[in-house]
Amino acid sequence: xxxxxxxxxxxxxxxxxxxxxxxxxxxxxxxxxxxxxxxxxxxxxxxxxxxxxxxxxxxxxxxxxxxx
Length: 68
Fold this sequence. Notes:
The chain is of the alpha+beta class. It has one domain. 32% of the residues lie in helices and 34% in strands. The protein has a three-stranded antiparallel beta sheet.
């Protein structure tokens, strides 16, 4: 079963980056990633959000019409 994300941080660690992921309940995991890996994560998240953007930003539409 998937764990629920509570938060995360990304920090520079020498040549690489440390990604710290916190789950609900407070448990954390740390991962080391290169610049290219972190860039790929950013690109993938952006593409995924772009695909869902219209649905996520959809407004009900009721009461939005201009009435003369």
